[in-house]
Specification:
Elements: H1 4-7, H2 9-12, E1 16-23, H3 29-39, H4 45-57, H5 73-78, E2 85-90, E3 95-100, H6 108-115, E4 120-126, H7 133-144, E5 149-155, H8 164-181, E6 186-190, H9 214-220, E7 234-235, E8 238-240, E9 252-256, E10 261-263, E11 267-271, E12 275-284, E13 287-289, E14 291-293, E15 297-302, E16 313-316, E17 323-333, E18 339-340, E19 344-349, E20 352-366, E21 371-374, E22 378-379, E23 384-396, E24 408-412, E25 419-425
Parallel strand pairs: 1-3, 1-4, 4-5, 5-6
Antiparallel strand pairs: 2-3, 7-16, 8-9, 9-15, 10-14, 11-12, 11-16, 12-13, 12-15, 17-23, 17-25, 18-22, 19-20, 19-24, 20-21, 20-23, 24-25
Length: 446
């Protein structure tokens, strides 16, 4: 019998790779990205002319390829990356969405943003400096976000005479550290982004290296976008009831399949109510189909008339997610205002938004050495810590380790809609034993 993976291999496979660059300040992230764009001939003529003009104004003899990604005026003036710069390019073998993230400690939240949807992270290290605190910090963030592939790009090899021993020492240290964090795959590549060594073309200066260039690895790394092997999850985004003469009794539930496969005739459970039914029909692109899979946008019709609204989740009765009002998670605080114990927030998970209270902050993670600061009381911008959040209504959450899509959520300020924190439900290498949740007597005790 044909497996689900084989059955949908032709439709679920994709040539798109999302990757993020990270590393310490001046390690050459933007230059690497610029070199990738330039040498893969993905730069428009007017873009290159603009970079050449700015470089000439600075008195530089050659174009500063870092300017291809450093788009903000403040970034160009300071020569650093502040924001997450997204770029899109393609080769004959694959399409790419890249996120060039800042290297400063105070922009850790930007790295979380860029790596949260990445299939691969490129962590740059200056060959002269080796693995430093910020390198370990970015490796830890990649591990927390479950980025499946990490590339260690040892940059500026031209400044250490292309010495194999320097590269080998750095690669060994980083690989040991990242492996301890649980990063599943690490590939080390010696490069010079400024000179172009091993970025797109193989280096003539490092004949001792027999591995792929950065672009070759990006083009060939096996990245699975096949969400059909995961349990089906269908967050309802909109209820469709035309109530027209042509469709007087039509009731459909529209949304995007987050993972798995839905089939007509399959028993399903609607969460958080727990009501059960059977899929009576699936409409995709105006036509009825017998089967649909992630990440298709479809309308599902059920055999029974059940009270379903936006935010409900339809899942197979054989494998539904657990529902809970006590969310234990790791969060990265992204707002300037602190997140304190007792804070009233909104929690947005897929298409569902509910009231919630931050009941505990058991620990704050120090990414430099992975030590725990117990009971910090609050998290400030760029902090990563464990939280216990009590929601007003049950949520159907998967563990982030099982699903990056249905295991993630946002904490939002109910007063102005500001995003406060990005959360990852379940256990992580930073997890702490949960303590007893104390009752709240200020009117928001759930």
């Amino acid at each position: 019998m044909t497996s689900t993976t084989e059955q949908f291999a032709d439709v679920s496979a994709t040539t798109l790779l999302r990757f993020a660059t990270a590393g310490s300040v001046d390690d050459g992230k933007s230059t690497l990205v610029g070199r990738l764009l330039h040498d893969s001939k993905s730069v428009l003529t007017d873009q290159l002319e603009a970079v050449e003009a700015v470089s000439a104004q600075r008195g530089q003899d050659t174009p500063d390829l870092a300017l291809l990604t450093d788009g903000l005026r403040a970034e160009r003036e300071q020569g650093i990356t502040i924001d997450v710069a997204y770029r899109y390019f393609a080769t004959a073998r694959r399409r790419f969405i890249l996120a060039d993230t800042p290297g400063h400690v105070q922009y850790t939240r930007n790295m979380v943003t860029g790596a949260s949807t990445a299939d691969l992270a490129v962590v740059l290290v200056d060959a002269r400096n080796g693995v430093i605190e910020q390198t370990r910090r970015h490796a830890a963030v990649a591990a927390l976000l479950r980025v499946p592939h990490v590339v260690l790009a040892v940059n500026k090899m031209d400044l250490v005479d292309y010495a194999e021993s320097v590269f080998a020492s750095i690669a060994e240290e980083f690989t040991a550290y990242a492996s301890d964090l649980g990063v599943p795959e690490i590939t080390a590549i010696p490069i010079s982004a400024l000179a172009g060594d091993n970025v797109v073309e193989p280096s003539a200066h490092m004949d001792w290296y027999g591995g792929p260039t950065v672009l070759e690895h990006l083009e060939t790394v096996p990245v699975s976008h096949d969400l059909t092997t995961c349990p089906a999850r269908f967050p309802v985004q909109y209820v469709i009831r035309p109530q027209t003469a042509e469709h007087p009794d039509y009731r459909g539930y529209a949304g995007q399949i987050a993972s798995g496969v839905l089939r007509v005739g399959e028993p399903v459970t609607v969460l958080p109510s727990g009501r059960t039914s059977v899929i009576a029909g699936i409409d995709a692109l105006g036509e009825s189909v017998d089967i649909a899979w992630a990440p298709q946008s479809v309308t599902v019709r059920l055999a029974d008339d059940i009270d379903i609204s936006r935010g409900d989740l339809i899942a197979p009765s054989a494998n539904p997610p657990a529902t809970t009002q006590d969310v234990v998670a790791t969060v990265c605080h992204v707002a300037d205002q602190p997140l304190a114990v007792g804070a009233r927030v909104l929690l947005k998970h897929t298409t569902r938004t509910v009231k919630a209270i931050v009941k505990e902050i058991p620990s704050r993670l120090t990414l430099d050495d992975l030590s725990q600061h117990p009971n910090p009381g609050q998290l400030v911008a760029n902090d990563i810590g464990r939280v216990v959040v009590r929601t007003a209504e049950p949520l159907a959450l998967d563990a982030y380790a099982d699903s990056r899509r249905t295991g993630s959520f946002l904490l939002i300020d109910p007063a102005d809609g500001t995003t406060l924190a990005a959360g990852m439900a379940g256990e992580s290498f930073a997890s702490q034993a949960r303590t007893t949740v104390q009752a709240d007597d200020e009117g928001w005790d759930f």
